[in-house]
Amino acid sequence: MKTNSTATxxxxxxxxxxxxxxxxxxxSVVDEYRMAPGRSIGxxxxxxxxxxxxxxxxxxxxxxxxxxxxxxxxxxxxxxxRPENGITGFRGFALxxxxxxxxxxxxxxxxxxxxxxxxxxxxxxxVYAMGPDSFTIVPxxxxxxxxxxxxxxxxxxxxxxxVAFKAADDPVPIAEVKPLRRKDFLGENIGQAR
Length: 194
Fold this sequence. Notes:
There is one protein chain. By secondary structure, this protein is mainly beta. The chain has one domain. Helix content is about 5%, strand content about 35%. The protein contains two helices and twelve strands, in the order βαβββββββββββα. Strands 2, 3, 5, 6, 7, 8, 9, 10, 11 and 12 form a ten-stranded antiparallel sheet that branches. Strands 1-4 form a two-stranded antiparallel sheet. Strand 7 (about 90-100) and strand 8 form a beta hairpin.
């Protein structure tokens, strides 16, 4: 694994310190945050690939940015992927902060991700997250594997790939993530094994 020589401690623009929020009477910190959320990351998910979502525990002092790549730290908490957070495994993309120290996370699916060094020959390569919205195909120290490139979007202004992803603790390989069939949208195969 290569060393990321440009890694310096920077402020995470997608993270909100819950201690900085004073909720109005009758509202929780999360309720107040939802009324004026911090920065979020717009994610485009491939709807032809089945998605899984899970409620996971996060640090109550950190309100995670929606769309941010998240992983689990050494204490078992979900945090933004950043080298200084000591992430031990990818868990997915944050969908929203919930009450009782939980965050809703998309843990399996396919998403369009911007990858700066992407070339047409990179289809099938592994993708690594270096930050909440920073991805690479080069395994760098502090990065965590997210998934693999399904296809490259050739008409995008910014190098973009559709990346099949899954949580590191998901035992089903990405190769077994099958696109939905038309019948799935009609409800005929929902909940049935293939």
